[in-house]
Every structure is written in C-alpha cells, then in structure tokens.
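Deliverable D4.2, example record:
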Amino acid sequence: MLSWPYLHLLVNHFPVVLSISALMVTILALVLGRRGLWLTAMAALAAAGVLIYPVHFTGDEADHALGDPWYIHAGMIEAHDSAAGIAMWVILIAGAFAAYSWWRSLKRPADLIPGWMRAGLLVGALASTGTVAYTAYLGGKIVHDAPILQMKEPPPGLPPGIAADKHNPLDR
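Output generated by the structure prediction step:
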C-alpha cells in the first residue's frame, strides 16, 4: 500500500544522490577543465533543485501520517524536519543558480564558462551536499536509533506476523 512515509522513502534519495554527483563532477571539472563536465554538474544540481520540494512535501505528509509513534525517539522527526527545511532552501537556491548557469552556457556554446559560474557551482554543490547529507543522516537515525531495535526480544502483545518466528528459517 502506498502511504506518505513509503512515498517519502521512495523519493528522498534523489536530491542526495544528485547533490553528491554534482559535487563529484564539479571537482572533476575543476581538475580536467572540460566544458561537458561543467554542464553535467549544472544539470545534476538543477535536477536536485527540481526534486527537493517533492521530497520535503512528502516528508511533511509522512510526519503528519505517523504522528509521534511510540517506537521513535521523541524529537528525532523534528530534528530531521528542521534540517530538511534548511537543505530545501539551500538546494533550491543552488539548483536555481545551476539551472540558470546551464541555460546560459548552452545558449553560448563557444564561450568559456565564467569563473563566477564555476565558483558558484562549487559553493552550491558543497552547500547542497553538506546540508542534504546531514539531513539524510538524521533521517536514518529516525529508524536506526528506534528503541524497539535495541530490544533482544519482541515486546509482548505484538500481533502474529509482526515478530519473526524463531523456528522459521526464512525469517532469519
């Protein structure tokens, strides 16, 4: 069944991967000085900017759908959401800059990519990667630090099918 938390988990990786890819390609472009690499980095960061709002929106909806479940440490979702708000604005700004740079560079194929554009892309890719990586780290802690995962035995009263059957080798 498609739910807001599931939908958020499906889409939240795009800005992370695109921001990191943009940073890696930007560094490669700095080293090799190839125009095609600069255009690729611009496109990746622009795509991250396009996709960041749907990720943020599904995260807000997932938060509303979940409420404050007993199996998640209090404040974990709020910390992730706070970092996500900052990451969204950083990536929106960096993505808009990258989209403009990409458009301008495609419009002027014979021109060198100006230094201010290359610097802006590097700063935008660094800021985007940093904020989205921290946000993803906090998002992972929502599940990975859940108190229920620290328990050696399932809590009493769980309905059948929720806890693994110790005698069924397929559940191991």
